[in-house]
């Protein structure tokens, strides 16, 4: 599992504050005013859960290293977008969402205090626990002081040949203004003195991001893996960069910039040109965080604060090394014994050929039954990818239509679409070029697809297309058959190995007709109508969910069976939360399985005592969205792409599909039973907003790991067996 693969695309940090503001919601005044937990502090609590895994000595050592990197990278995005957006709203006098804190300045203060505490804790676990454990495992992250003369002589050669030519020191004086400091770059602040004149000068040196963050030291014949941080190595060769000058001080610093921008969408302007202009503007956003090493002198700090225009609250003093996101390089070391046991995803039993030696036929398998896929336990390559690749080469396939929100750098999905277009099929790709931090990659994909003859749509004005849909139209026995895939995660083979997601493959004609109409709306000018087996945002999804929550409320009031179970990444939407509170007041048992942000206060007497909230953070990123309603004994279950956030419900094209196969409904119910069980390791949320980890039994043994259990269950399936 790689840190960049674990970062969420749907609400950890990469959504603008504007996306979490619903100006249409009106408080009816019947519920307590303080019923929503703070959205930003809830996100920080999620990142604290990530940190707790890094602190847990029972987690394999290199996985702890990875969780340290994930924590750091998550926090960077949080500042670039969420904190930046809150600060922008304060400065411009814009309204702040209900669940972001009633007093904006107080919210920033609370965030700063919490982040300072978490970053100190993050640095301490690396220094006091993970680094010593790495030493014991023969993986040493050295400092210059640890090296002997022989080491230093060999590292001098590495510096001269591989590093020195890439470095560019920048002086700061009347002839050289303070240089632009790029966001997330690691820098050295250097004060030097001219021995002839006695005059002191300041210089800035950027640590090149094109070089390895941790430089491997030559083998010293002890069988150890040894590394030194690049900035430490460079710091101890400053005399070569400033010959003849005295080096007085040098420290590390790092700046995070505001990357919260909104695309001004004008129907008269090319969306790509508008987006490219805004991406250029993003590079020059104002600084919002300054990280410095704890040995920085006051004089240098004053210079940085003045030139960068930041406040004391935005300065974070930490022990070296800064930017522990760079530990991803250490995690990639090939030491299987220090990582989670390797899991090879199994091919879905429903997709296995009927005869042992027969070639798999995805269409024949789907035609037999709806197939519920569960990644990464079940292989993405032998299911979704195989579905599209078979469609591309099948002469009976006439058309393929697909949405692409994010995909990997070397994408077999895109290659399949290009191959289908080359074969003369009608291919439509809706590429969402506004997917934050993947805008340039998606623009490049879109242009490649266009060159291959694919019909490319760049999303819709004012809306992001976030739904995960693929539709294949096939000629069979003189009629057209629809084969559909609706998922909870992106068409990305890379993240499919670390994101937990669900997907439905179906030949159901009604689903096919629903998707046909939806794709026509996305690519043309059709007006959205209601669908038969889908709930689609922005017009119908929130209404559909609220209707079902109210049905459960009424069932409870009438003495009929009732129950709501929801699994999402985040839940902050006030209308949904208020409906859940009222359902709880009516006696509906409600289970919320929330991976990240949760603004619900569970267990409040008279308000939410029937609501339980659990969170599971582990080897895989829990990413699927599931909605289950008892419905008086006729259970309804939906899966899809939408979280319970304003942006998902109001400003995105999102799709949920209803599951109808009895074995699939049972599988979802069993998954919820396992997640909510007191015998399963998880974090529990209380009414005050505190998350408490429950991972040990009374006798000190570890509670059940949900992901390990599902891995075992799904790997044991055989063709024709029950799910």
UniProtKB/TrEMBL annotation:
<comment type="function">
    <text>Catalyzes the reversible transfer of the terminal phosphate of ATP to form a long-chain polyphosphate (polyP).</text>
</comment>
<dbReference type="GO" id="GO:0005524">
    <property type="term" value="F:ATP binding"/>
</dbReference>
<feature type="domain" description="Polyphosphate kinase C-terminal">
    <location>
        <begin position="361"/>
        <end position="526"/>
    </location>
</feature>
<dbReference type="InterPro" id="IPR025200">
    <property type="entry name" value="PPK_C_dom2"/>
</dbReference>
<dbReference type="GO" id="GO:0009358">
    <property type="term" value="C:polyphosphate kinase complex"/>
</dbReference>
<feature type="binding site">
    <location>
        <position position="499"/>
    </location>
    <ligand>
        <name>ATP</name>
    </ligand>
</feature>
<feature type="binding site">
    <location>
        <position position="406"/>
    </location>
    <ligand>
        <name>Mg(2+)</name>
    </ligand>
</feature>
<dbReference type="GO" id="GO:0006799">
    <property type="term" value="P:polyphosphate biosynthetic process"/>
</dbReference>
<keyword id="KW-0547">Nucleotide-binding</keyword>
<dbReference type="InterPro" id="IPR036832">
    <property type="entry name" value="PPK_N_dom_sf"/>
</dbReference>
<keyword id="KW-0597">Phosphoprotein</keyword>
<keyword id="KW-0418">Kinase</keyword>
<dbReference type="Pfam" id="PF17941">
    <property type="entry name" value="PP_kinase_C_1"/>
</dbReference>
<dbReference type="InterPro" id="IPR025198">
    <property type="entry name" value="PPK_N_dom"/>
</dbReference>
<keyword id="KW-0808">Transferase</keyword>
<feature type="domain" description="Polyphosphate kinase middle">
    <location>
        <begin position="151"/>
        <end position="329"/>
    </location>
</feature>
<dbReference type="InterPro" id="IPR041108">
    <property type="entry name" value="PP_kinase_C_1"/>
</dbReference>
<feature type="domain" description="Polyphosphate kinase N-terminal">
    <location>
        <begin position="36"/>
        <end position="141"/>
    </location>
</feature>
<dbReference type="GO" id="GO:0008976">
    <property type="term" value="F:polyphosphate kinase activity"/>
</dbReference>
<feature type="binding site">
    <location>
        <position position="74"/>
    </location>
    <ligand>
        <name>ATP</name>
    </ligand>
</feature>
<feature type="binding site">
    <location>
        <position position="436"/>
    </location>
    <ligand>
        <name>Mg(2+)</name>
    </ligand>
</feature>
<dbReference type="InterPro" id="IPR024953">
    <property type="entry name" value="PP_kinase_middle"/>
</dbReference>
<dbReference type="Pfam" id="PF02503">
    <property type="entry name" value="PP_kinase"/>
</dbReference>
<dbReference type="InterPro" id="IPR036830">
    <property type="entry name" value="PP_kinase_middle_dom_sf"/>
</dbReference>
<feature type="binding site">
    <location>
        <position position="595"/>
    </location>
    <ligand>
        <name>ATP</name>
    </ligand>
</feature>
<comment type="similarity">
    <text>Belongs to the polyphosphate kinase 1 (PPK1) family.</text>
</comment>
<dbReference type="Pfam" id="PF13089">
    <property type="entry name" value="PP_kinase_N"/>
</dbReference>
<dbReference type="GO" id="GO:0046872">
    <property type="term" value="F:metal ion binding"/>
</dbReference>
<feature type="binding site">
    <location>
        <position position="623"/>
    </location>
    <ligand>
        <name>ATP</name>
    </ligand>
</feature>
<protein>
    <recommendedName>
        <fullName>Polyphosphate kinase</fullName>
        <ecNumber>2.7.4.1</ecNumber>
    </recommendedName>
</protein>
<feature type="active site" description="Phosphohistidine intermediate">
    <location>
        <position position="466"/>
    </location>
</feature>
<feature type="domain" description="Polyphosphate kinase C-terminal">
    <location>
        <begin position="534"/>
        <end position="698"/>
    </location>
</feature>
<keyword id="KW-0479">Metal-binding</keyword>
<dbReference type="InterPro" id="IPR003414">
    <property type="entry name" value="PP_kinase"/>
</dbReference>
<keyword id="KW-0460">Magnesium</keyword>
<dbReference type="Pfam" id="PF13090">
    <property type="entry name" value="PP_kinase_C"/>
</dbReference>
<keyword id="KW-0067">ATP-binding</keyword>
């Amino acid at each position: 599992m790689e840190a960049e693969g674990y970062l969420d695309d749907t609400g950890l940090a990469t959504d603008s504050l504007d996306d979490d503001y619903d100006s249409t919601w009106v408080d009816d005044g019947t519920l307590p005013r303080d019923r929503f937990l703070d959205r930003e502090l809830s996100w920080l609590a999620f990142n604290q859960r990530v940190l707790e895994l890094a602190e847990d000595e029972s987690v394999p050592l290199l996985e702890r290293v990875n969780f340290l990197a994930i924590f750091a990278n998550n926090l960077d995005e949080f500042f670039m977008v969420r904190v930046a957006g809150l600060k922008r709203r304060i400065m411009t006098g814009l309204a702040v969402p209900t669940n972001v804190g009633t007093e904006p300045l107080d919210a920033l203060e609370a965030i700063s205090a919490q982040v300072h505490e978490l970053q100190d804790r993050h640095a301490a676990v690396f220094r006091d626990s993970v680094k010593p454990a790495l030493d014991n495992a023969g993986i040493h992250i050295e400092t210059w002081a640890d090296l002997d003369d022989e080491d230093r002589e060999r590292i001098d050669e590495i510096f001269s040949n591989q590093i020195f030519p890439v470095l560019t020191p920048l002086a700061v004086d009347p002839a050289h203004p303070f240089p632009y400091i790029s966001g997330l770059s690691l820098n050295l602040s250097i004060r030097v003195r001219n021995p002839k004149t006695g005059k002191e000068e300041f210089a800035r040196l950027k640590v090149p991001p094109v070089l390895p963050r941790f430089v491997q030291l030559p083998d010293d014949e002890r069988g150890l893996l040894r590394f030194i941080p690049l900035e430490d190595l460079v710091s101890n060769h400053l005399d070569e960069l400033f010959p003849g000058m005295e080096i007085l001080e040098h420290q590390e610093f790092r700046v995070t910039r505001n990357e919260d921008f909104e695309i001004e969408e004008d129907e008269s302007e090319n969306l790509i040109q508008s987006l490219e202009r805004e991406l250029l503007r993003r590079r020059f956003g104002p600084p919002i965080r300054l990280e410095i090493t704890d040995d920085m002198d006051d004089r240098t700090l004053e210079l940085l604060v003045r030139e960068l225009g930041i406040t004391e609250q935005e300065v974070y003093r930490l022990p070296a090394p800064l930017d522990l996101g760079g530990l991803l390089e250490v995690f990639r070391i090939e030491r299987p014994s220090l990582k989670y046991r390797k899991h090879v995803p199994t091919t879905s039993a429903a997709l296995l050929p009927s005869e042992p030696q027969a070639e798999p036929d995805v269409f024949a398998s789907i035609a037999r039954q709806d197939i519920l896929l569960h990644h990464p336990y079940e292989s993405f390559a032998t299911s979704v990818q195989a579905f599209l690749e078979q469609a591309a080469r099948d002469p009976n396939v006439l058309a393929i239509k697909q949405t692409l929100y994010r995909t990997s750098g070397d994408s077999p999905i895109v290659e399949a679409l290009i191959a289908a277009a080359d074969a003369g099929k009608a291919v439509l790709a809706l590429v969402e070029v506004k997917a934050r931090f993947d805008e340039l990659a998606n623009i490049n994909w879109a242009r490649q697809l266009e060159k291959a003859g694919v019909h490319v749509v760049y999303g819709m004005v004012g809306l992001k297309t976030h739904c995960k849909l693929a539709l294949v139209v096939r000629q069979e026995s003189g009629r057209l058959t629809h084969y559909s895939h609706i998922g909870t995660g992106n068409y990305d083979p890379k993240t499919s190995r670390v994101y937990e997601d669900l997907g439905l493959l179906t030949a159901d004609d009604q689903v096919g007709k629903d998707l046909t109409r939806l794709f026509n709306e996305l690519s043309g000018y059709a007006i959205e109508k209601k669908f038969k087996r889908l709930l689609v945002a922005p017009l119908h999804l929130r209404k559909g969910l609220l209707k079902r929550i109210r049905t459960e409320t009424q069932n409870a009031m009438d003495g009929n069976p009732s129950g709501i179970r929801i699994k999402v990444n985040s839940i902050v939407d006030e209308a949904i939360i208020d409906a859940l509170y009222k359902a709880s007041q009516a006696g509906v048992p409600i289970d919320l399985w929330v991976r990240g942000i949760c603004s619900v206060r569970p267990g409040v007497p008279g308000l939410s005592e029937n609501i339980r909230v659990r969170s599971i953070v582990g080897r895989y990123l829990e990413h699927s969205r599931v909605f289950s309603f008892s419905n008086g004994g006729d259970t309804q279950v939906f899966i899809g792409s939408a979280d319970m956030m304003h942006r998902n419900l109001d400003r995105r094209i999102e799709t949920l599909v209803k599951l109808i196969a009895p074995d699939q409904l049972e599988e979802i119910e069993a998954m919820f039973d396992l997640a909510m069980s007191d015998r399963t390791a998880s974090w529990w949320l209380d009414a005050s907003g505190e998350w408490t980890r429950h991972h040990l039994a009374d006798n000190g043994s570890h509670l059940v790991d949900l992901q390990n259990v599902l891995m075992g269950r799904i790997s044991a399936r055989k063709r024709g067996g029950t799910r």
